[in-house]
Design brief:
Elements (H helix, E strand, L loop, with lengths): L12 H26 L10 H55 L6 H24 L1 E2 L2 E2 L10 E6 L7 E6 L5 H5 L16 H44 L3 H27 L10
Antiparallel strand pairs: 1-2, 3-4
Helix pairs in contact: 1-6, 2-3, 2-5
Length: 279
């Protein structure tokens, strides 16, 4: 830094030095005021080039993890709809089992058994209806018979595209497939041939599989939320301003701004003392 004895007034070196210091302080004041206004330590790449790049990468990861959480939620919704449908089918099968046992009562005549068969036919028709009506976003979830295509969908449940989970419902759960007799074809003569126990085993196995998958998705959701929190915390350490520290720096610079302004005024007035030489 250049200094002057003060006796040369054509170029006021002291004033220039004070002005340069004041300009530097004003720039710093602006930086800290912007940080206090936005809450961010890095407001442009110029503030911290490497930190800015790293933070943007972290922001992308956080958003992809958030999207994966949404995917997990959709997968849970699909499983919830399917579980509700299977549980209703299971309840109907329990009713059919009850009536199958009742039909074997020797005290019943032909009319009573025919009435039981008619009721079973209605319950089986309802099972077929449930198979067709259990949908998610317009897609049928259940496979009614061997000719129907099984529902199968892949959900990305992680940051990378390879981190996916496939949901599928491959069991054939139409009334005919479950009970061995088509709905409307049950008579008092073939009630005993209905494979209700096997049907219940099939449906309950699907319900158990759904429960296991829902538990798995719950774990994934918890892990994703933890990863999001940790990623945001790491990004915050790079991008966010420490308000207390910034306020301390701003106050210090404001004081220096006032002292630099005072020194500039003093430096501009110093050459006037040489006027006395001309009196």
């Amino acid at each position: 830094m250049a200094f002057s004895t003060g006796s040369r007034i054509n170029t006021n070196i002291a004033a220039y030095n004070a002005l340069n210091a004041l300009n530097a302080i004003n720039r710093e004041v602006g930086v800290h005021q912007l940080r206090l206004a936005t809450g961010k330590r890095v407001n442009s790449a110029a503030d911290d080039a490497s930190g800015y790049v790293i933070s943007k990468k972290m922001e992308g990861r956080s958003r992809s993890l958030s999207a994966a959480v949404n995917n997990v939620g959709d997968a849970q919704s699909v499983l919830g709809v399917a579980e509700g449908g299977y549980q209703t089918v299971a309840d109907l099968l329990v009713q059919i089992k009850d009536k199958q046992v009742r039909a074997s009562d020797g005290a019943f005549g032909a009319d009573e058994k025919d009435a039981i068969a008619a009721e079973i036919n209605k319950l089986m028709s309802e099972i077929d209806d449930i198979n067709g009506q259990t949908k998610f976003n317009g897609q049928v979830l259940f496979k009614k018979d061997g000719a129907a295509a099984a529902y199968s969908a892949s959900f990305q449940v992680g940051e990378a595209s390879a981190e996916s989970m496939t949901l599928s419902f491959t069991a054939t759960t139409g009334a005919t497939s479950l009970l061995g007799v088509a709905a409307g074809s049950v008579t008092s003569a073939n009630i005993s041939t209905l494979t209700v126990d096997t049907a219940l085993t099939t449906v309950n196995a699907e319900i158990g599989s759904i429960g296991a998958q829902m538990n798995r998705l719950s774990v994934k959701e918890s892990n994703l939320n933890t990863a999001i929190t940790n990623t945001d915390a790491a990004k915050s350490r790079i991008m966010d301003a420490d308000i207390a520290a910034e306020q301390i720096s701003a106050v210090k610079l404001q004081i220096l701004q006032q002292t630099a302004t005072a020194q500039l005024a003093q430096a501009n007035s110093n050459p006037q003392v040489f006027l006395s030489l001309f009196r």
